[in-house]
Every structure is written in structure tokens, then in C-alpha cells.
Amino acid sequence: MFQGASSLSLDAKGRLSMPTRHRDALGAALTITKHPHGCLMVFPRTAWEQFRERIANLPMSAQWWKRIFLGNAMDVEMDGSGRLLVSPELRAGAGISKDVVLLGMGAHFELWDAQVYAAQEAEAMKAEMPDVFKDFSF
User: Fold this and answer.
1) Where are the domains of the chain?
2) By the 8 A CB rule, do 103 and 110 touch?
């Protein structure tokens, strides 16, 4: 289970240096794809394969969601220095240029443009909590 946030920067070639604490659990084979909220999802290959199967089995009414998740998926390999290349197409699709936030979300990570994430998080914090949290104890 991945959790926690890391503020990172992409290098000039669009490579992300994965935090050391996550490298062993991730493995070298990863898949990156778009998320409908405007970020990217980074999966270890085994978790991606499970997610991909669930998406592929959706009905035709979800065809556009299949295109978003499966049609944009790119397999990548982490290099010996723990870097992975985020393709120009995926970076453009998520508005990512240099500074990013990497969020552990359980079985995968979300990769956000740092400014976009900060703005969306601030909006979410101003809004009322969803009903599912009404009986949640903090």
C-alpha cells in the first residue's frame, strides 16, 4: 500500500526520480495512464494488470472511459537510478511541466502538476465533506 506525498521535479528529459522508499515495492516495470481528474496514475505492473482487466470488462456504455484509461496507458521501466520517463503526451495531458506532487493512493500513485494539485486541494478543503465521512471519527 502506497501512501504519503512527495514534492518532486521532472528533469529536462521528463524523467521522474522515484523516492527511494517506494522503489523496492514498485519494482522496475510500471504503467502510467491518465486519470479523469487531471493527473496521472502510476501503477506497479501487477496492480496495473488487475486494474486493466476491470476496465476492459466494462460495458460498451463506458467505451470513452476505456479509451481514457487503456488507450493512454504507457508501460515504462524504472532505470538503475530509480528514474522513469513520463512521456510528453502524458505530461501534456496532465498539464505537467516540471514541479510535481506524487501521492500514494494505496495500490498506485497519482502524479499531479504541483500548482494544479495545490489549487484543487485548497478547493476540496473549503467544500463540505462528502456524506461518506459524516459518521467517520477523526
Assistant:
1) 2-133
2) yes
d(CA 129, CA 107): 24
Domain 2-133 has what CATH class? alpha beta
For residue 126, the model assigns a pLDDT of: 94
Nearest to 68 by CA among 107, 105, 35: 35
Instruction: Compute the distance between CA of residue 112 and CA of residue 96 in angstroms, rounded to an integer.
Output: 7
Cα–Cα distance, 128 to 75 (Å, whole number): 38
**pLDDT tens, 17-71?**
999 999 999 999 999 999 999 999 999 999 999 999 999 999 999 999 999 999 9
C-alpha cell at 81: 537510478
pTM: 0.92
